[in-house]
């Protein structure tokens, strides 16, 4: 054997040994694949030329019971690129349908994603591990199945920010570059994101099955979702109606959380609505800076269908699509009485608005420092937002400044708040109402300000900071700004020295016309 060959062999043996140790940390189970045949295609990730690990999410790896140290290595790059899959993976591309911008596609599916399997986390919760950007699948249609580095990092950043803000979300476990370029408007570095989710079952998954008229599979899917996400409903007399109600409740709470944080998802198609109630698919999403209910960032959302203020009614619309998909099961539950079925489902769907308002107001009370429930609170909260309209007020900072007002005494503490307004006439009318409402509660100003600061973030993923981090990574291969931004966002509620730049919106000039693109 030549010297060259022997070196190769030694190298090969070494890598294999390490891979086994890093890969052994996954104890995969595959209940989705076992229970839901017909809803996926077994498929393999495309091999990539030169995988490099950009970031491993140590905290999440720990939560999943994985050995972060073993995975934070070149071998981890092989695993998270799909080049070398751990034992127990049976990678599949999931099938789903979806209404995209109102139009129905009976077959979308994982065109650039694969489910590796499920692991049980430290809390006993089943979590999906999946790739995004792992190559073409039978669902790819015209797409290349790949992901560009920028969108992968955006999903990593926003998902982690949402998690730190306490908003239910899928999360990033790892990001790798692939060593190849993907063709977009220009050539961009390719990347793969490893995503962790409570599950990847979407409203579109139900739509896929119902569109095909496969009622036995629909029943299996509903049973599976109930067992996995809503086990309390098992054995109820009307489990599917209860499932619809439970998903409506989860979505009402989720969208209220988005609205309370100024988050705009940007592409609330039914294939991007999870049954688990987690935020999924961070494409053209962004946080609103200056308060404007009509804010839209997505370059493809020309009609503003998914504008900030439209998110609650759109969620309601999406849930109506879920009800339609569940209809065959709902009818059966109501002994084939169609009128009764429609009436019961309509009742659930109509309740969404009330449930949404309940969660929104709950969040707003906390943001405004209110501890009791009073009838006037809804108007008080809504009117605070109205004071911001047209005044160029930074949504996130406004709430933070309110906490300063509470803690300080007199006019000085109000300066920061007033400074946010171009014209503070409406604010001046609102503040005395709020003060009067606060006076009706006996809680110390310090305590109240503390409670407000615990729910009103200082740091959100500011659009210009996200772009800065993505640019440095994509154009210069410099991941430092990405890492710093992630660090800052890990503790969104704790103001820290030297981080003022992360708390400020971009100037009006810089941010006007800010557009995000569907990350693919
Ligand atoms: P999304 O906008 O990420 O929710 O994706 C919508 C649909 O388009 C899904 O079925 C994706 O799998 C598919 N898709 C998006 N980008 C690509 C791509 N680059 N290659 C193949 N399929 C894609
Ligand atoms: Mg999607």
Structural key phrases:
520 residues, alpha+beta, six-stranded antiparallel beta sheet, two-stranded antiparallel ribbon, 20 helices, 48% helix, binds adenosine monophosphate, binds magnesium ion
Query: What count of domains describes the coordinates?
Result: 3
Low-confidence stretches: 1-20
Biggest sheet layout: 6 strands, antiparallel
Number of strands: 12
Assembly form of the protein: single chain
Helix count, per DSSP? 20
Percent strand equals: 5-15%
Could you tell me which ligands this complex binds, including any ions or cofactors?
adenosine monophosphate, magnesium ion
Helix content: 40-55%
Instruction: For the record, give the distance between the C-alpha atoms at the N and C termini, rounded to a whole number.
Output: 46 Å
* Anisotropy-based shape: globular
Mean pLDDT: 94
Structural class: alpha+beta
Radius of gyration equals: 24 Å
Topology:
Blueprint: H1 3-23, H2 31-35, E1 40-42, E2 52-56, H3 58-63, H4 68-71, H5 74-81, E3 92-94, E4 98-100, E5 103-105, E6 113-120, E7 126-132, E8 147-148, H6 149-164, E9 171-183, E10 187-197, H7 203-211, H8 215-229, H9 239-261, E11 263-264, E12 286-287, H10 311-333, H11 338-368, H12 377-388, H13 395-407, H14 415-419, H15 425-439, H16 445-453, H17 463-476, H18 480-490, H19 500-503, H20 508-511
Antiparallel strand pairs: 1-3, 2-9, 4-5, 6-7, 7-10, 8-10, 9-10, 11-12
Short description:
Helix content is 48%, strand content 12%.
């Amino acid at each position: 054997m030549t010297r060259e060959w022997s070196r190769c062999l030694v190298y090969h043996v070494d890598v294999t040994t390490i891979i086994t140790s890093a890969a052994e940390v996954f104890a995969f189970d595959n209940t989705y694949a076992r229970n839901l045949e017909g809803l996926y295609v077994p498929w393999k990730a495309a091999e990539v030329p030169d995988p490099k690990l950009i970031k491993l999410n140590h905290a999440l790896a720990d939560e999943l019971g994985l050995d972060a140290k073993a995975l934070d290595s070149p071998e981890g790059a092989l695993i998270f690129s799909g080049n070398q899959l751990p034992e127990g993976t049976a990678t599949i591309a999931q099938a789903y349908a979806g209404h995209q911008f109102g139009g129905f596609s009976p077959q979308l599916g994982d065109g650039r994603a694969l489910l590796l399997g499920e692991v049980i986390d430290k809390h006993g919760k089943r979590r999906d591990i999946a790739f995004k950007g792992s190559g073409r699948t039978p669902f790819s249609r015209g797409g290349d199945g790949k992901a560009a580095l920028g969108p992968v990092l955006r999903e990593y950043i926003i998902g982690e920010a949402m998690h730190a803000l306490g908003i239910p979300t899928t999360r990033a476990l790892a990001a790798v570059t692939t060593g190849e370029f993907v063709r977009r408007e220009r050539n961009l570095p390719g990347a793969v994101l490893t995503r962790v989710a409570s599950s990847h079952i979407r409203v579109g998954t139900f739509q896929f099955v119902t569109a095909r008229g496969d009622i036995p599979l629909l029943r299996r899917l509903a049973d599976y979702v109930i067992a996995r996400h809503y086990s309390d409903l098992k054995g109820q007399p009307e489990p599917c109606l209860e499932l619809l109600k439970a998903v409506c409740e989860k979505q009402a709470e989720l969208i209220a959380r988005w609205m309370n944080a100024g988050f705009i998802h940007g592409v609330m198609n039914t294939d991007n609505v999870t049954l688990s109630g987690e935020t999924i698919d961070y494409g053209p999403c962004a946080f609103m800076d200056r308060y404007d209910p009509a804010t839209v960032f997505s370059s493809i959302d020309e009609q503003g269908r998914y504008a900030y203020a439209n998110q609650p009614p759109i969620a309601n619309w999406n849930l109506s699509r879920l009800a339609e998909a569940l209809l065959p099961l709902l009818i059966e539950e109501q002994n084939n009485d169609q009128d009764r079925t429609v009436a019961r489902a309509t009742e659930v769907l109509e309740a969404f608005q009330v449930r949404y308002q309940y969660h929104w107001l709950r969040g707003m009370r906390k943001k405004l420092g209110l501890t009791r429930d009073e009838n006037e609170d809804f108007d008080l909260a809504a009117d605070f937002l109205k004071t911001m309209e047209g005044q160029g007020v930074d949504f996130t900072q406004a709430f933070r400044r309110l906490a300063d007002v509470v803690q300080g005494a007199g006019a000085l503490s109000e300066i920061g708040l007033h400074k946010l307004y171009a014209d503070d006439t409406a604010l001046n009318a609102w503040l005395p109402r709020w003060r009067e409402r606060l006076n009706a509660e006996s809680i110390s100003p310090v305590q109240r300000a503390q409670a407000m600061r615990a729910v009103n973030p200082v740091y959100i993923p500011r659009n210009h900071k996200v772009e800065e981090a993505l640019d440095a990574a994509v154009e210069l291969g410099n991941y430092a700004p990405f890492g710093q931004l992630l660090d800052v966002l890990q503790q969104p509620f704790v103001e820290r020295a030297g981080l003022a730049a992360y708390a400020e919106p971009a100037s009006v000039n810089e941010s006007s016309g800010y557009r995000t693109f569907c990350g693919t």
